[in-house]
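Reader question, answered in our methods column.
A reader sent in the components of a multi-part assembly and asked whether the whole thing could be modeled at once rather than chain by chain. We filled in our standard form and ran it. Here is what they sent:
COMPLEX SIZE: two components
ENTRIES:
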Amino acid sequence: MENKICKLLHIPHPIIQAGMVWVSGGKLAAASANAGILGVIGAGSMKPDLLELHVQKAKSLTSHPERLAVNVPLLYEKTKEQLETALKLGIKTFITSAGSPKTYTQWLKDQGCVVIHVTSSPELALKCEAAGCDAVIAEGFEAGGHNGRDEITTLVLIPQVVDAVKIPVIAAGGIADGRAMAAAFCLGAGGVQMGTRFVATKESSAHDHFKAAVIAATSSSTMLMMKNVVPVRLLKNKFFDEIKMMEDRCATPAELIQHLGHGRAKEGMLDGNMERGELEIGQIAALIRDIPTVEVLVKRILAEYESAKLRL
Amino acid sequence: MENKICKLLHIPHPIIQAGMVWVSGGKLAAASANAGILGVIGAGSMKPDLLELHVQKAKSLTSHPERLAVNVPLLYEKTKEQLETALKLGIKTFITSAGSPKTYTQWLKDQGCVVIHVTSSPELALKCEAAGCDAVIAEGFEAGGHNGRDEITTLVLIPQVVDAVKIPVIAAGGIADGRAMAAAFCLGAGGVQMGTRFVATKESSAHDHFKAAVIAATSSSTMLMMKNVVPVRLLKNKFFDEIKMMEDRCATPAELIQHLGHGRAKEGMLDGNMERGELEIGQIAALIRDIPTVEVLVKRILAEYESAKLRL
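And here is the structure of the entire assembly that came back:
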């Protein structure tokens, strides 16, 4: 299965463990690198000094630092400092999101880096290609956390992006096993990114309460909310119910932002407050039933992929 | 590719042309049967006498009446009469939706029919199996027209349904080419149902204006609306904008139903009023760029399926 994505990212298996706020630190990224996939540190929840600690930790836990990457949402003040911190420590693969691919792509390419931008539409995928990105991650409506406004599902999005651009396409959203990986490849993707699946692993930094909630999720446990502020897919809990009630009465964006307050995502996902916390998770949580090590998980996904191939 | 679905439905290719209001009459169903797939007359928009005409027309246009079926939403007053009309004319395959699979499944089975119920959740799929259905059509959030409340996408729904039931699963929603068909098979489906793709065929009864709008659609041209009444995916037009404005100000279900009025779907899809009409279409319209005959389309889908298989 050695393909373009494998070559681009120096990984034996074309799978990316997604960078996620509060969940994907150095420990998870190193475990992923050790399992032969791209291990991504989610810098979205880290100040530069904390990011430095996580990159150092990841490097100390793997003999494959070339399989480590950092995901940087481009909407924070300290984006440039985050990128510089990671560069200084030898990170050569960057996944950028939530901003224009024009801002940092060329600057990172000039320093010999691989740059992949996350897109939720074929239109933005074209902009990523024009900005010089090496690949795009096309992420559908079913994905956890922040999400596109047009609600395009992965099944509908991937072929459109594949048809639109010449650079490789990595599928994300709704993918947690080898069946979905094979499906994504049929659609023309060259790799897959999984987030939700890696929340429920031994090495993720998600709180045990959050991991338990993920494996207890059913088909109706998540919903895309806050569409008038920034769309985000949430696990249903007390906080979700409050947001739902506010939206049902047409609360203003300002009211919603005030209710959201600060630190809700950390409170839920890292600290394990299942009532007050904002729990970002994908629809595919419904299929997740255990908390394996990353090594066991990756082997299982590859075996499922082979079985799915045989079904055709 | 002869599989369980092919045997169950007496078709060489495991593809179902979906029954759709105002679009799938006898002409389209016969063309589908002639092309080796299941041709479905959508009874949702027909009184029993009109259904009788369409079944007779379909039978007169094909030498494969065993490949004809009728789709009956179970929410109308005349459901029983519709079923009796189709039975009287020799229809042996029924697709039911929008109601309980308990209501008519056993009654139809007792008369030697094949019964398939449409589901948008694994929970309802289990009820279909318990009610004696021969198979289920699992339809995701990206599908056109009426839709489930939990917004489960096809990619996430199919594996859950496949894991939940022992009867064969047919995937629907977001499928318009052989790539998506191969993807659905990787997920464990034994067949696919396509609706939107068949709207834009020479033999569909959609108005030419509607067909033109479908092939002009982009990735952001549809949205799931009317969630507080009955969720329905619509093509964006003036009517859509009106509904959107009403929803943005939290209009009541009663206000929305009043604005919807009567005959809006016919006005748009059959009569071609692109401003006032309710245009039901799937997200995958973004990928559709031509209006082929059904025969040409089915051959193309099968060729695309073979190419997709080779990609794995």
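What stands out: The first strand of chain B starts at residue 15 and ends at 17. Chain B is about 40% helix and 15% strand.
Send us your own complexes using the same form.
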